[in-house]
DNA sequence: GTGGTCTAGACCACG
DNA sequence: GTGGTCTAGACCACC
C-alpha cells in the first residue's frame, strides 16, 4: 500500500491523496499504464468519503497524471513519470520556502534552524516513513 | 516594524498576526509589559478589518501572551517571553516535521532534500527577511 | 431542547451558548460522540446571528469539548463528559464564591443570607427551570 | 478603610465602588451626613482612574445616596441608610437568583447545590471578609 | 450540506 | 481614546 492519510492535519484530504499519488509515481512505486484503485475501493480503504477520492482523481486527470480507460477505471498516463518528478520538486520547494520565510521572521538564528532540521532528519529513519 | 501579512498565503490573516506577535516577543522585539498597537491602529496599518485584528488579540489573550489594561489597551504579559520562545520552537518543529514526512514519502533521497534546504537558506539572505 | 438564551442578561450570548453546551454534556443530555446542531440551525432556532453560534462552537473546540467531523459538523469529544463536569463545578463555585464575598462585605448577617438562599431555591421549582 | 477592589473580576470597577459605598451605609460603617473621601484621594488609594471614582459618585448621587456639600465634597444623604438597606437586599437577591437559575440549568442536583453553598459559607470566615 | 474567514458597520462599556 | 459584542452578508473549502 502506498499511502497514509492524516485527517487531523489541516491539509485537505483530497490533496493529501493527489499528492501521494504523484509522489508514488515520482519514486516509481506506481508506473505508467498501471491502474489505480477504484474510487470506492480506495475510499473504503482510507475510511474517507468517496467524493473526496473522486475529487483527488479529478484533479489528477486535470494534471494529466491519470486518464480514464473506458469503463475499466483510471490508469497512470505515459507522461506521468516525468511530470510527477517535476511536481515533486516544486511542491517540496514551495513548502520549504514558506517554512524558511517563517523561521527567519521568527528571529530564530540560522544555526538553530539548521539544528532543528538535522534533528528532524535523524529522527525520522527512512524505513518508517514509507509504510 | 514587526508585521508582514501575506493575504494570499492560505494561512488565515488573524493567525499570521498572532504568530507574528509571538515571534516578536520570542526574539525580544516586543518586551513584557510593553503595549501592542491598538486594534484600530494595527488594522489600519495592515489594511485589514479591525475584527480580524481583534480576533488575533483575543487568541493571544487566551494564550496568556496579552492581557488587558482596562481602558488603556493590551500589553504583553510578564510570562509571555518564555511562553513565546517555547511556542516558536514547537510551531517551527511542527512545520518542519510535516515537511520532512512529506519529503521522505515522496521518495526524494536525503541528499537532495538537504540540497533543497541549503538552497533555500542561502536564497533568503537575513536582511530581506526582516523588512 | 437544552438551550435557553436571555439576551438582556449581561452575559454575552456566545458565552451563554457555550456554557449551556457544557452543562448539557455535564448532565448527560448531550453525550460524547453525539453531534451538536449545525451552526445555521442553532442560529435560526435561537434567533441569533450564525457568527455568534460559530464563536461559541469555536471556544468549545478550544476547550476540547467539540471536535470537527470534516464536512459533517461538530461532535462532542470523548473526553468532554469528564471535562464538562469539572467545568460545571468550578464555574458554579466561582459564581457562588463572588456572591458570598459580596454578601459578607455587605454586612448582611449569615442567617439572612441563608434565608435568601432558601427562598430562592424554593421559588424556582425544578420543573420550570428545565424548559 | 471600608472596601477593596478586584480589578480582574469582570464587574466594572465603578460599580464595585458604588456598591461598596451602599453596603457600607447599609451596615452602618458610613453614616448619614458623613463625608466620603474626595475623588482624587479615593482614586489614589484604590490605584484607579479618577474618572472611574467620579462615575461611581455620580451614580450614587443619582440614587440619592450622596449629595454635594457646596465646595466641600460629597456627604451621605439623610435618607441613605434606609435606601441602602433596601438596595442591598435587592442587589443580593438578584445575584442569587441568576446563580440559582444557572445552577438548575446545569443539572446539578439540589443537594449538591446546597453542599456548594455551605462549603462556601464555612470557607469564608466573617473576620477576613471585612478587611 | 457543513464550518471557517473576512468585511462592514453599529453599538456598548470602560477609563 | 480603548476593547468587546453582535449583526448582516459575502465568499471559500471541504465532504
Topology:
4 copies of one chain form a homotetramer.
Chain A: H1 13-26, H2 39-46, H3 50-62, E1 66-69, E2 73-76, H4 80-105, H5 110-123
Antiparallel strand pairs in A: 1-2
The structure holds a DNA duplex (15 and 15 nucleotides).
Supply the key terms:
homotetramer; 131 residues; mainly alpha; Arc Repressor Mutant, subunit A; two-stranded antiparallel ribbon; 5 helices; 6% strand; elongated; disordered C terminus; DNA-binding
**Spans of at least 5 consecutive residues with low confidence of chain A:** 127-131
The first-level CATH class of the largest domain in chain A is given as: Mainly Alpha
| Rg on CA atoms of chain A, Å | 17 Å
Number of individual domains of chain A: 2
Structural class from helices and strands of chain A?
Answer: mainly alpha
The helix content of chain A is 55-70%
Q: What is the number of helical segments of chain A per DSSP (H or I, 4+ residues)?
A: 5
Average pLDDT figure of chain A = 87
* CATH architecture assignment name of the largest domain in chain A: Orthogonal Bundle
CATH topology of the largest domain in chain A: Arc Repressor Mutant, subunit A
CATH superfamily of the largest domain in chain A: Winged helix-like DNA-binding domain superfamily/Winged helix DNA-binding domain
User: Tally of extended strands of chain A?
Assistant: 2
Amino acid at each position: 500500500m502506498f499511502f497514509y492519510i492524516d485527517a487531523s492535519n489541516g491539509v485537505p484530504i483530497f490533496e493529501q491523496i493527489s499528492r501521494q499519488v504523484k509522489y508514488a509515481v515520482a519514486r516509481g512505486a506506481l508506473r505508467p499504464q498501471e491502474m489505480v484503485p477504484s474510487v470506492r475501493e480506495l475510499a473504503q480503504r482510507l475510511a474517507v468519503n468517496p467524493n473526496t477520492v473522486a475529487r483527488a482523481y479529478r484533479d489528477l486527470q486535470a494534471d494529466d497524471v491519470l486518464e480514464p480507460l473506458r469503463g475499466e477505471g483510471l490508469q497512470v498516463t505515459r507522461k506521468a513519470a516525468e511530470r510527477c518528478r517535476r511536481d515533486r520538486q516544486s511542491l517540496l520547494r514551495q513548502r520549504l520556502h514558506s517554512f524558511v520565510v517563517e523561521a527567519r521572521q521568527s528571529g530564530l538564528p540560522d544555526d538553530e534552524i539548521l539544528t532543528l532540521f538535522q534533528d528532524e532528519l535523524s529522527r525520522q529513519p527512512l524505513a518508517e516513513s514509507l509504510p
